[in-house]
Amino acid sequence: MRIMGLDFGSRTVGVAISDGLGITAQGKEIIRRERESKLRQTCARIEELIVEYGVERIVMGLPKNMNGTEGERVEKTKEFKEMLERRTGLEVVLWDERLTTVAADRYMSEAGIRGEKRKELVDEIAAVFILQGYLDSLPKTTE
Which of 14, 61, 69, 115 could make a disulfide contact with 124, Cβ separation 3.0–4.6 Å? Predict the structure, then answer.
């Protein structure tokens, strides 16, 4: 079963997809939009990726504050979650994304990625961290 990971931001959505066994997450792309409220094209692209990769579930980062409280971004994320569930018919799981952007930044620093390239990739890499954290939490079956 393939699972999609999303890092939903005000102007971008980082996208990651799991391998067919649900073991590893790979970054796929960053969906960009001109304005925060322009979500139709974003949803349409996510739907295309769902079909292309045979996605059966979506995991989306939940941007809680470091102290665990929920701010305005959490509310927008929950609204987008409901929109995705209606449009795709898939379950959307919210996953605590605290520190994923920090981890993505550290990863890029260690990989020697600098400047503009770093800004371009941070959302996609954060989506990988969100999805990989979720995949690692799932019970492993042995056959």
Answer: 14
Does residue 65 lie within any of the structural domains? yes
Each residue of 18-71: pLDDT tens digit?
Answer: 999 999 999 999 999 988 778 999 999 999 999 999 999 999 999 887 777 788
Give the 3-state DSSP-derived string for 49-117, with helices as H, strands as E and coil as C.
Answer: HHHHHCEEEEEEEECCCCCCCCCHHHHHHHHHHHHHHHHHCCEEEEEECCCHHHHHHHHHHHCCCCHHH
5: its two tokens = 């990971």
Residue with tokens 């994304």: 97
Residue 109 within any structural domain of the chain: no
Q: CATH number of the domain that 91 lies in?
A: 3.30.420.140
Compute the distance between CA of residue 27 and CA of residue 120 in angstroms, rounded to an integer.
12
Q: Measure the CA–CA gap between 14 and 19, rounded to whole angstroms.
A: 17
Q: How many CB atoms lie within 10 A of CB 72?
A: 9
